[in-house]
Amino acid sequence: MKICRTLLFMPGNNPGMLASAGALGQDMVIFDLEDAVAQTEKDAARVLVRHALRYARPEGMEVIVRINDLGTAFWREDLIACVTGEADYIMLPKCNVPEDLATMANAMQDAAANHGGRMPKGVLVIIESPLGMENVFAIASGHPLLKGMLLGAEDLTADLGAKRTPKGDEVLYARSRLLMACKAAGVKAIDCPFPFVNDIAGLVTDAAFAAQLGFDGKAVISPHHVHIVNTAFSPSAEQRQWAERVLAAAERAKKEGKGAVSLNGMMIDLPVIKRAENILARAGVPESCHA
Questions:
Q1: Domain shared by 203 and 243, yes or no
Q2: Which parts of 33-152 fold into alpha helices (H)?
Q3: Is residue 144 domain-shared with residue 274, that is, in the same domain?
Q4: What per-residue confidence (pLDDT) applies to 177?
Q5: I need a surface site. Which of 148, 151, 227, 272 has the fewest CB within 10 A?
Q6: How far apart are CA 226 and CA 207, in angstroms?
Q7: Alpha-carbon Rg for the chain in angstroms
């Protein structure tokens, strides 16, 4: 997956919003066939999303489609629309066990074989139940198609009987556990949306905290949140300059045959070099351009 600071959900039954997907500044867009669409509009939304994938795809942007979960009557038809519309990725909600990914992979292959189109590049899952959270590493490491995981904090806190708050203490454990599983498995860790749409100060704090924890990006439910989240997940000019100096110093030491080097009193060892490389990667600097 490319840089994914922001993943913006868009209702699959709103043609105007689908058409504007390329103009809002997010890194990736999620066409939503699940929570944003009423039961009576599922079929119409599926047609709209397939049309948007085929004829109104945002230029230069990867498109994810969130299908309905495996316990519904809709998900197989959703998958056919995704495959024939050539979605880049599929997002599976309410993933609870590793076997859900195998079910998805088999159904995707059947859809491609029987209906044409293109297999998606991969799958992202939403962990949004206590059972899913207990199985989070097994899911994260359970299938090569898995590319990322998103924390579904609203459903999770509802199941827990916890109150959702702007500060987010009630999801700190879930955030940390999902993040650790993703890093261990080598897949993208996507933070939950900030649900308090008009609390901009709260969003700034929440996004900065998620970036500090180490998430790769954050889902957003409002176009007004995109710029703030992009900023939170983008290294500052000072961070980038520091990273460039670190890698330059490390490269000089390597050429001079030195085993250790310091920069402004800080020992430059492998963890510091890795941190610098991560900063430049988040800034979109190709690895070949690092120092």
A1: no
A2: 42-55, 75-85, 99-115, 130-134, 136-140
A3: no
A4: 98
A5: 227
A6: 11
A7: 20
Which pLDDT tens digit goes with each residue over 184-211? 999 999 999 999 999 999 999 999 999 9
* Domain that residue 159 falls in: 6-232
Query: In this structure, are 247 and 186 located in the same domain?
Result: no
What integer pLDDT is reported at residue 289 of this predicted model?
47
Contact 34, 73 (CB under 8 A): no
* Confidence (pLDDT) at 263: 79
Q: What is the CATH number of the domain that holds 84?
A: 3.20.20.60
* 210 is a domain residue: yes
Would you say how long the chain is, in residues?
291
Q: In total, how many domains does the chain have?
A: 2
Do 205 and 259 have their domain in common? no
Confidence of residue 251 (pLDDT cuts 50, 70, 90): confident
- Give me 241's structure tokens: 């300059």
**CA triple 66-69-71, angle to 5 deg:** 165
Give pLDDT, residue 253: 79
Q: Count CA atoms within 13 Å of residue 137 on its CB side.
A: 7
Quick one: how far is CA 229 from the chain centroid?
Answer: 12
Place of tokens 């990273």: 243
How far apart, in whole angstroms, are the C-alpha atoms of residue 47 and residue 59?
A: 20
Flag whether pLDDT at 276 surpasses 70.
yes
Q: Taking 70 as the threshold, does the pLDDT of residue 5 lie above it?
A: yes
Global pTM reads: 0.88
Strand intervals (E) in the chain: 6-11, 28-32, 62-66, 89-92, 122-127, 146-151, 188-191, 217-220, 261-263, 266-268
Residue 158 belongs to some domain of the structure: yes
